[in-house]
Amino acid sequence: MNYLLGAFKPACNVLITFNDGKNRKQVPFKKENGQTVTVPLFQSQENIAGKITIEPMQGKKIDHNGVKVELLGQIEMYFDRGNFYDFTSLVRELDVPGEIYERKTYAFEFSTVEMPYETYNGVNVRLRYVLKVTINRGYAGSIVEYQDFVVRNYSPPPQINNSIKMEVGIEDCLHIEFEYNKSKYHLKDVIIGKIYFLLVRIKIKNMDLEIRRRESTGSGTNTHVETETLAKFELMDGAPVRVIDFVTFEEVNFLGEVPKAMLLVTLKNTRRGKMSLGGLIIVCSPQLRGESIPIRLFLSPYELTPTHRNINNKFSVKYFLNLVLVDEEDRRYFKQQEITMYRLQETS
């Protein structure tokens, strides 16, 4: 029985280490089994060098037909799981056929490696970089060991970054303009903008700003599209109100003595026209002509990636700002605008 159990034990241990592993930045990486580990971070055109240690189990030797290490950049579609599309493939032969009796260490180096795409884990696709060590043993079955690492590529701020101005509306019922300060954002940026109410003749329940990610995989009739809402930011709860006129300076100061909750409730329950509240003259208009709401949304709390366009003809990842307005009858009015995300070099 012990003999049978021993037959299934690995013939050796394989350890892959990087030369600068102690000083290189480590980042979280989610493996295929769902486990999260920390792995080294690289960027395109860097040297990837290290050591591979092979240690036979006690009392055993390894007969092999050669040892090699590969650096692979791979794309895997989840609806075609197990089939990898290699867009980068580099090989270094480490040893000729022979035998290994005791611990043996091999040095390897891949110089100025072209890694054009970032590591990506999506809904239907993943892009990964991996070191693959193979001990070829022919009929005895090859021994294979993997070591993942992450690639992130950085972009400078764009020279041209135009603002976004758009409108949403229904004739004689709703007319809103919104403006965002730019169309390209880095992953830790802040979205700054403003919403202008030119005409509102509906009862507004709430207004939200959403960040959506759209992942497209495949092509033609085999295209799969997944849309995720990554963030939902409440801009407004109920319709905005404004004070039109104060009779005197003393009555302006009086506003500070009026309980805000009472003031808002009173305004909500007041139809168009004038009303008097302790000498304060207010006009409530359901049209809300000329009102505006500022937008300030920080992106750093959210797990965003750069925009990916037609990566190796396999997939794309795009981001959108989605403005959603809901009336009291739960009808939804929305306007969607694509934005470009990029990774800015972090400063220490």
TrEMBL record:
Gene Ontology biological process terms in this record: intracellular protein transport
Pfam family, one: Vps26
Cited Gene3D superfamilies: 2.60.40.640
Signal peptide as annotated in the record: none
InterPro entries to which the protein is assigned, alphabetical: Arrestin-like_C, Vps26-related
PANTHER family according to UniProt: VACUOLAR PROTEIN SORTING 26 RELATED
Family stated for the protein in its record: Belongs to the VPS26 family.
Full protein name: Vacuolar protein sorting-associated protein 26A isoform X1
Species whose genome carries this gene: Abrus precatorius (Indian licorice)
Originating gene: LOC113854206
